[in-house]
Amino acid sequence: MTVRADILKNIKRVVIKIGSSVISNRDKGRSPLECGLSKDWVRHYARKIKAIRDKGYEVVLVSSGAIMAGRERLEFGRTDLTIPEKQACAAIGQSFLMHTYEKAFEKKGLMVAQILLSHDDLGNRRRYLNAKHTIEALLEKGVIPIINENDSVTVEEIKIGDNDSLSATVSCLVDAQLLIILSDVDGLYDRDPSLKNKSSAEKAQLISHVSRVNEDIEKIAGKSNNRLTVGGMLTKVRAAKKTMSFGIPALVVNGLDEKVVENIFAGKDVGTLFWSGKGKIRDRKHWIAHTLKSTGTLTIDEGARKALVERGKSLLPAGLVKVKGNFEFGNALTLIDESGKEIGRGLVNYNSRDLERIKGMKTSAVRKLMEESFYEEVIHRDDLVIF
Ligand code: GLU
Fold this sequence. Notes:
The structure is a single chain. This protein is 40% helix and 17% strand. It is α/β, with parallel strands linked by helices. It folds into 2 domains: 3-286, Acetylglutamate kinase-like (Carbamate kinase), CATH 3.40.1160.10; 294-386, PUA domain (Archaeosine Trna-guanine Transglycosylase, Chain: A, domain 4), CATH 2.30.130.10. Strand 11 and strand 12 form a beta hairpin. It is globular. The structure holds glutamic acid.
């Protein structure tokens, strides 16, 4: 079996990043930011995403294009916009972008939801988990979350900066099994394919598989001088490096190729795949297990122990016997069984006061008691490491 077929076999959830240049009204010689949003390309991707959904995959979109769409509407012709001007463009363009997606997906019978994130949201554990829970709830309802950076309220220092990096973070956040970055280039070349010097440009080869992002790869990516992509190849390679360290493969492909999505899902050798294989403990789980300080201990009963260890389930309030420590939502806790043996660690969805009230209770009773602060899981499987 090829590497790509093997990856496809294991996919349940995929994050797709759409770059501004992919959904712009392209016009030769002009940057996509000057060309405005193309409804045709948005519709095209609504169709493609519907087809992926019909195959049974969950899809989370990360879409750029707000600033581009806003520029068009505000008729900002010049390229040197000030930061407040860009933010104004993002504010206007974002709603236009979403409106365009909404209309396109509605035709396919799909609902969309907008989520705007900033670095502050993702750096703060509580907000990180909140975002995660929201996205999970949307996916459960069959909705397509469409994520962008909250450009109009973030200034440079607290910005994620580019949507390649945002899409990598989102892939880890939602535990996707594949990140697809749709760009306007075919992937990573071993040298700059747009070089003036034809003889060397002709020899530029597309790299089909990168199994490790090292300095050499970053150097090659840094040199690719594509003025049409917002982040260029370097931000894509860095995004892929991040997902790889979390055990998630990333694929950088040319989104202007109308058949690219079919080709990916047919296991064809398109674009550049960044993948080092499975087998590593995911960095985030590593972070939960080894980096975070545990702020409390939960004792769980035998039924819950079995559900967690043998069946890979989340921890529910019903299985909780004892709560020790003073902790808040999002803190790391140690799980022990009734004999005091450590089972694992995880990030908790309740503070210690609430958990004390709901321990041992059935989910339906917890739902009634907690109302708005209700979470089904005390610790979600994705936030849990079993030793
Ligand atoms: N968030 C920006 C926008 O929607 C794009 C950033 C990027 O593509 O890296 O216009």
